[in-house]
Design goal:
The chain is an alpha/beta fold. It has 2 domains: 10-140 and 206-257, Vaccinia Virus protein VP39 (Rossmann fold, 3-Layer(aba) Sandwich), CATH 3.40.50; 144-202, Pantoate--beta-alanine Ligase, Chain: A,domain 2. Helix content is 25%, strand content 33%. The chain has helices at 6-9, 11-17, 24-35, 51-58, 70-79, 114-127, 207-216, and strands at 2-3, 41-45, 62-67, 84-87, 98-103, 128-139, 155-161, 164-175, 180-189, 196-203, 219-225, 250-257. α3 (24-35) packs across α4. GO terms for molecular function: methyltransferase activity. InterPro entries: Methyltransf_25 (IPR041698), SAM-dependent_MTases_sf (IPR029063). Residues 42-132 form the Methyltransferase domain.
Length: 260
Amino acid sequence: MTSGNLLTDNPALYEARFPDPGRLAARWTEDCLRRHGAGRRVLDMGCGTGRDAAALHTAGRTVTGADLSEAMLTHARARHPGPQYVRADLHGFDLGSFDAVVCLDSSLLYCHTNDQLDGFLASCRKALAPGGLLVAEMRNGAYFLGRTDLLDRPAVDEFAWQGRTYRSTTTLTVDRTAQLLRRTRVWTTDDGSPPTEQCSAWRLLFPQELRHLLAAHGFEVLELHDGPGPRTEPPWRQGELPGTTTDADRLHVVARLCTL
């Protein structure tokens, strides 16, 4: 068995596994930005393949997409032009001045430690113009308080791409000491290639913990809710307003940098 991140190392395969022809995540983000009067300059941290950054660019934003993966950035520049794409670590970055920082699809939860979370939020504070917005979408740590439905058995999925069938078996475990949700995913294909094992983890952040962290870094929380959002069931639809609960498995936050 080999190790590595099959999807991150192969961005076109990532897009095939997670198709988003309607650019739902970007449209939800644009809705948040418009409702709260954000300026044009947007930093998309953890931009991945660049689909959302490019959609925000098409909506009229001046977008910088940042990611740690060179493979993702190369793909983004070739397939989703418009934004400027740069390599940066979300644990600490200095990329200029922006009116909004966007961090989608649990990217923020790759800050595993308190120091890394502080580094991210301090970098956002430095990057944002007065009154700038932070928009983030992620897993909800509170969902795992007393619930085991996502932990009880591996999740099996398969899809076909370019004549090859890919099958994944994903196991989630909670590391309570580190406050992490650990994921082990084993990929197999129908062409006889050896299995590939991918290991990753997300920080389990709880709603009140997130409120405290944001306030400590000078942010006022404008929205904090479990949906509707781009990865909820049912997903967000154009015109829908945010809910008021924080109980389901996704968490959405819009926060404004306070002015002195």
